[in-house]
Fold this protein.
Amino acid sequence: MKIPLFPLDVVLFPGAPLPLHIFEDRYKEMVTSCIERQMPFGVVRAQSEGLAVVGCTAQIVTVLQQYADGRMDILCEGGERFEIELLDTSQAYLQAEVDRFLDLGEESSREERAQCTALHLEVMELIGLNDNQASPRNLAIDLDAPVSFTLAWTLPADLNFKQELLVTRSDAERTAKLLAFYNAILPKLRRGAQTSRASGRNGHVM
């Protein structure tokens, strides 16, 4: 399967929203072609050492705004993961032959999903992101299905870790990596929150 590629400093996950402002001529051409042909393009992380091998397709959901000079604001949604097999530079924009893939390993248990979600929301609370897309009221969580991708795209983590999660081909393994991440950062976040509360009480009559 050959698809256009859009290298970005981002890791896109299946089901995750991706708003984009398209301004380069080559990508205006690419997006216009994708809209006309009703086909997705591939989002791959652009790294200093080159492109990531594994990416995720992006389906254009809607064109939010079209400008007179051809620029456009679009909203996309992550689709399927893929692995790049062969790059094609024959067009103004990059293309690639890719192999799509799904998880092969075991799924996480409902208990693990519930634990992972609870820790995720605690992290969001402690770092003050409750009012964004990662807030409890905005996350659509169904514990009867895998939640690792839903949590991963809102995760306050570096892109190397997010790319590691994208590459992982087992929901159980991906969920375990998320749990390890939360358990590693939460003690520090909790201590920071306690310190802030304590300093906020200084000078006040209890």
